[in-house]
Write a structure and sequence with these properties.
Distance between the termini: 10 Å
Structural class: alpha/beta
Number of domains: 1
Strand order of the largest sheet: 1-4-5-3-2
Helix content: 25-40%
Strand content: 15-25%
Order of helices and strands: EHHEEEEHHH
Number of helices: 5
Number of strands: 5
Shape: globular
Oligomer: single chain
């Protein structure tokens, strides 16, 4: 995985509460705008989420598309959105969304870094409470 897979310009801080679908569209469009994926990848992210939730108990969600949509990737990258008030995500409340556009090797490494660094909801809330895009980028370094 390249060292700076999440850059400050691909972090949106303090988003208003919205639906899970709108959050996926938001972070997916950020991936497209940053040149990591084509528009079709957002559809793949939605399909993946309908099949299986990408939220984890710590208040983080990591939407991504399944393998059949990987042809819509241009290069590996991540976008992140913080939701200080949280958003409903199935049975969970999510405060930080990492949109992932990555090949299999990078994808697994990203998931591992996020889940190892942000193991608890308290850690997630502390991180987004800093309101610092650089601190969110550090999760993936």
């Amino acid at each position: 995985m390249r060292e700076h897979i999440l850059e400050v310009q691909n972090v949106f801080l303090g988003a208003p509460s919205e639906s899970r679908e709108d959050a996926i569209r938001r972070v997916g469009q950020m991936l497209v705008d940053a040149g990591f994926a084509r528009d079709e990848y957002i559809y793949g992210m939605m399909q993946r989420e309908h099949a299986f939730s990408t939220a984890v108990e710590s208040g983080v969600a990591m939407p991504h598309a399944d393998r059949e949509f990987k042809q819509n990737l241009k290069r590996s990258g991540v976008a992140a959105v913080s939701y200080p008030q949280g958003i409903p995500w199935g049975d969970e409340t999510v405060y930080l969304v990492f949109g992932i556009a990555a090949g299999l090797d990078d994808h697994l490494e990203i998931l591992q870094k996020v889940t190892r660094t942000l193991e608890t909801k308290e850690q997630v809330l502390e991180l987004i409470g800093q309101n610092d895009a650089r601190a969110i980028c550090e999760v993936l370094r």
